[in-house]
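seq:
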Amino acid sequence: MKLRVSKADFPYTVEIIQEFLDAGDAFFTESVYHFYPELRGLSKAEVAETLLAVYRNKEAEMDVKALAYQAAWDEHGAEIVSGFEGVFSLDLSKHLNDMQARVCLNPICPRYLDTHTFDIFYLFSGMGSLEMVVHEVAHFVWFMVWNRLFQDSPEEYDTPHLKWVFSEIAIDPIVLDARLRRFTRGEQPAYSYFYDIMVDGQNFMEMIRALYRENDMAGFMAKGYALCQKHEAAIREVME
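struct:
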């Protein structure tokens, strides 16, 4: 498992930020506007023009951050790989050696499972970037293992499919596992609304955590997904 960090170019930067603005999801648009309030109400052409000025102003800083994020991985990557190998009971020496992270102005950090690429916001510290790295790498490893087990379609691994939703819930016990824990700040690494789900008088995330503790990875995947299927309505309700 290897990771190369570089700076996102401007065409990609404006394209991905505009994509999230066009999606109309308040969770994402407000995240963008929080950091770039000057974009609110602008046309696409005006967004591009405004972001170009921001990009030119922050370009040198992004170059520095790319070096810092790479240095953090180079120093701690072996420990992270070992942690994932333990969590998934898998030798990763011949897997995910093509991962790429792009330092970006976008505060929303998408991942692309097919190309093993993801974005990292430029305002993290070097060590702080590893929290995002661990989160995204967890998804790459998760779906690699998932596909081997269930041999289903990768088209179902992205939003809004329930398999994507479960992967975002499962991030919690995975990155809080003692083998990866030190790279994660706080006690709620998944989307905040997942911690509000109550079913049958129990907190859903606590049920997921219990399944993780009590099963190997294959068992956790199968039983956890079955639990998500059973309570999909409650999960979708908090996501609205």
